[in-house]
Amino acid sequence: MTPAELAADGCDTAVLTIESPSADAPRISLDRPHSARLEDLSRGDQSGRAWEARIRAGVMPGPVAVRVQFPGAPPATAAISVLPVAADSAGDGTPDFLRLQSRGDIEAFRRWFTFLAEAQYFQDPARRPAEIDDCAALIRYAYREALHAHDSAWAQSAALPLVPAFDSVEQYQYPYTPLGAALFRVAGGAYQPADAGGPAFAQFADAETLWHRNTYFIGRDLTRALPGDLLFFRQPTGHMAFHSMIYLGESQLRPDSHRYVLYHTGPDGSNPGEIRRWTVAELQHYPEPEWRPVDSNPAFLGVYRWNILRKVDLLR
User: Fold this and answer.
1) For residue 217, is it within any domain?
2) pTM above 0.70?
């Protein structure tokens, strides 16, 4: 194994060289799939007697045993250590191991996040998760579920009207990170090793905390928004000072030529509120100007993007 240690950042890789007279490919398994995974297996030379397995680190630190077996032969094992990391290249409180690095993972997150939010708009309100009761709750739900492994068990528990055949994020799957179920940054400051398992992260975050601690500013021009970005508003009056919306882009459930924005109105007295979906053009001409996502509206804070989409290589 070269090297014998990897950083638990979801990116670091090692190569295991395997020599055998067998012409068959080996079967390889890892005992801690959230600490490391097999990324690729190929022949190492022209003799056909060597194989190279590329092992990619996950984000959960710990020792990993790699089991190699050829047909008709006893298994062999190799060991690799996945070491904890605590880098925060942006100093925004989000550890780099949570920042999605591959284009495939970024696109997978965007597809799932926007699909899951939009699916709740078309879902019978009686069948929606009870937790979705305001704008931040809808966002928290879609964010958490977008980072799951979307296997058959998840599909059954999600109770969606349909489940798309999208790839899942590979770098990590909720809740298998050093932060566990605590997804959202709720305290100021850069990430520190003590933040894992501490009070700096929580499962709950209101709209203000999502804005201030978990996203970064893109601009006040809606043409810069990408699917999965968030729009934030701060109103001087009303029962909700901070409000958030999801920029969907084009609909994944009922495609047409329009771009959409989705949000939950939140409760108002005895009224539980509702999920609304507007085209960008409709929202830009909304009857109440304080809710228009335009630069001239002082209540519009702008377009924001999730910290986990701020790639490490762009910060160095």
Assistant:
1) yes
2) yes
pLDDT along the chain (316 residues), means of 10: 96 94 89 96 79 96 96 93 96 97 96 98 93 97 98 92 92 97 97 95 97 97 97 85 96 95 92 95 96 96 98 59
Give the pLDDT score at 313: 56
10 and 148 share a domain?
no
pLDDT at 22: 79
**Whether residues 253 and 296 fall in one domain:** yes
Domain containing 194: what range? 96-314
CA distance 245 to 230: 6
In 3D space, the residue among 79, 65, 67, 57 whose CA is nearest the CA of residue 26 turns out to be: 67
Q: Is 90 inside a domain boundary?
A: no
For residues 203 and 295, state if they share a domain. yes
